[in-house]
Amino acid sequence: MSVNAMIVSAGEALDALRTAWQVQKDGHMLASYMLHGRPGVGKTQVVEQLARDMGGLLFDLRLTTIEPQDLRGLPYYDHQSQKTKWYRPEDLPDDPAHPAILFLDELTAASPMLQPTVYGLLQERRVGRHRLPDSVFIVAAGNTVEDGAIAYQMNTALSDRLIHLHVQAAAADWLDNYAVPKGLHPTVVAFIKTRADLLDTTEQALEQGHLIATTPRSWERVSQIMQAVPDRRMRNILVAGTVGDAVAAEFALIADDIAATVQVQDMLEADRKARIALYPASMHGLNALIYGLIGILDARNVNGAIDIMADIRQLARLREEDDFKRMPLGELCTYGFEGLIRKGLELGIGQRFLAHDAYKAYAKEREAAGLA
Q: Could you give all domains of the chain from N- to C-terminal order, each with its CATH number?
């Protein structure tokens, strides 16, 4: 059966769960929640971020690795009462004074033998005599049969116990709410910025019978490879084994171009005349420059970062290459400043932008054009 819930991005799913948690805190226990989505789309990251936002503990149960007794506990005979009782498992939250998430991951791949125990958690919030306190928020996650993952069809008895969210990868959401805040390698971020269609190729890989597909999770792994492996040939081999050889070949061309033209630290240290000559003359390069500036922004280099970002909009006038005349430099500058200011506010240096002459000139130009 297909998941006929509204399709949402990972960021929208996080917002929905935040709202649901607030509703539960206000005393309205609606239901448990189910995140459907392809492998690597970011379901686990959504739940991990929610736990951080809640200031709560995360109890992560991978249902494919446990047996019914791991949830139910083990029986023992109480000689005094002459009854069989149960040792409760330690993996279930029990502190009513502290918020927690019980995350039932890989629910659709769990053994059917485990499902009756899971039903009790999802509907009645209990296993045996152990009841989960109201401070516990329950989220499940899983893939579908159509995703090419190991999965069972969810039956109606289980489905009816859940509020369903169908999570799909969205490039803009992933870039703004995950890749940039997490500090993924600028080359990866710049590549997906201009090749949003390659963020998730699971469907195409299944149609073509290919084993390897791109996913948000695999691009995070590529970022780790880019940061950790200096040798170009070895890096390309590992990237190809992560996202497939065709995508890796295209990515390698862009990575080489960015490596040759983007020198963020050199630009921060140069005077303006020398700096203008260092701007990369490609969209990939300018995107990588923008994300590189956002990534290294701090109180020491904020003035230089503002200067570099502000001059992007003037490159068609400051440089002779025709390439700059064909680029949306104004949009790039605006997008870059949005990311830079967001990072600056997180660091507590937002006021430095308002006091900087280059930023004031940029803001005045936008206001004059009716864009402020």
A: 7-168 (3.40.50.300), 172-368 (no CATH)
Give CA–CA dist 102/89, Å, rounded: 13
What is the rounded distance in angstroms from the CA atom of residue 133 to the CA atom of residue 100?
A: 9
| 237, 222 contact by CB (below 8 A) | no
Closest CA to 291 of 175, 145, 163: 175
Phi/psi of residue 118, nearest 5 degrees: -65, -35
Around 234, how many Cα atoms within 13 Å sit in the side-chain half-sphere?
7
Phi, psi of 37 (to 5 degrees): 170, 160
Q: Which residue has the tokens 């290294």?
A: 296
Instruction: Please give the chain's pLDDT, 372 residues, in tens.
Output: 678 899 999 999 999 999 999 999 998 888 899 999 988 999 999 999 999 999 999 999 988 888 777 777 777 888 888 888 777 777 788 888 999 999 999 888 887 778 777 888 888 888 877 889 999 999 999 887 666 666 667 777 778 889 999 999 999 999 999 999 999 999 999 999 999 999 999 989 989 999 999 999 999 999 999 999 999 999 999 999 999 999 999 999 999 999 999 999 999 999 999 999 999 999 999 999 999 999 999 999 999 999 999 999 999 999 999 999 999 999 999 999 999 999 999 999 999 999 999 999 998 888 887 766
d(CA 16, CA 2) in angstroms, rounded, equals 21
Between the alpha carbon of residue 340 and those of residues 180, 196, 337, the distances in Å are 10, 21, 5
Contact 291, 181 (CB under 8 A): no
CA distance 358 to 311: 8
Establish how many alpha carbons lie within 13 A of residue 275's alpha carbon, considering only the half-sphere containing its beta carbon.
Answer: 20
Cβ 264 vs Cβ 289: under 8 Å: yes
The residue assigned the tokens 């992933």 is 174
Kindly provide the b/e burial profile for residues 108-117, where b requires at least 16 CB atoms within 10 angstroms of the residue's own CB: bebeeebbeb
The model's pTM is 0.83
340 in Cβ contact with 309 (< 8 Å): yes
Q: For residues 107 and 64, what is the distance between their CA atoms, to the nearest angstrom?
A: 8
For the chain, the residue count is: 372
